[in-house]
Amino acid sequence: MSELFKDDEMDQLFYGITLTTKQESMINELVKMNKEVIGSKVFGYVLYDNGTFPVMTNLNRDFFAENYIVILTAMGQAGVYDSYTFLIKQVLGVGVVIEYKVPKPRHLIINIANLEKTETKITTSSGLWLSTSSNLGLIATQTNSEFTINQLKKVLEILANPSGTYLDIRFGNTAYILKTKDDKWLTTSDGLGIIATTEIPE
Q1: Number of C-alpha atoms within 13 angstroms, CB side, residue 52?
Q2: Taking the alpha carbons of 23, 46, 54, 202 in that order, is the dihedral positive or negative?
Q3: I need a labelling partner for 145 at 20 to 30 A (CA). Which of 29, 32, 44, 64 fits?
Q4: Which among 56, 95, 57 is positioned nearest to 74, based on CA atoms?
Q5: Which domain of life is it from (predicted)?
Q6: Using one digit for the tens of pLDDT, what is the confidence trace for 164-184?
Q7: Does 28 fall in a domain?
């Protein structure tokens, strides 16, 4: 009659090798999973859908899923200028200028200007690129969306809440130059440069 298992020194050695290998494999898999999951949009959806952070339920689900790492990092030091600056620059881009004013205790004004812009072609409804009389294509700059701005305001208010600070967030009028594709300022027939402005509603 054969024995399936003997509790001797050799068996203990092989058992130890197998256990160690299995543990190393599991650790490697957990590290890999952590790298793939943490920071992913899918994990952001899971956190949002499970109500992990009840204070954030007024945020848009997609906005939270895209920005939760930045939001949680900023929340680590809620109510501190550095956390506001970090969050604003991560969401709107490093091209923003931020100014803080405290007119009275627990009243903070945050002025945000020079929103980072992206260039877009000006086209007709049929997709043709509009051009000048000298056949130069027109390009306009575009600011961050009103949706992004409104979501950012909500997060900043959440950050200010623990300290009881009243936040007054102001976005300055953003002026930008209309340019041709070769980076020349678009002008009127009188040679005056054309500037378009946009105001982000509060």
Answers
A1: 12
A2: positive
A3: 44
A4: 56
A5: Bacteria
A6: 788 888 876 555 555 666 666
A7: no
Range of the domain at 193: 38-198
Look up residue 161 and give its DSSP letter: G
pLDDT value of residue 200: 42
CB of 70 within 8 A of CB of 90?
Answer: yes
Residue by residue, what is the 3-state secondary structure of the chain?
CCCCCCCCHHHHHHHHHHHHHHHHHHHHHHHHHHHHHCCCHHHHHHHHHCCCCHHHCCCCHHHHHHHHHHHHHHHCCCCCHHHHHHHHHHHHCCCCEEEEEEEECCEEEEEEECCCCEEEECECCCCCECECCCCCEEEEEECCCHHHHHHHHHHHHHHHHHHCCEEEEEECCEEEECEECCCCECECCCCCECEEEECCCC
Residue 4 lies in a domain: no
**Number of structural domains, the chain?**
1
Residue 25 lies in a domain: no
pTM of structure: 0.55
Residue 193 domain-assigned (yes or no): yes
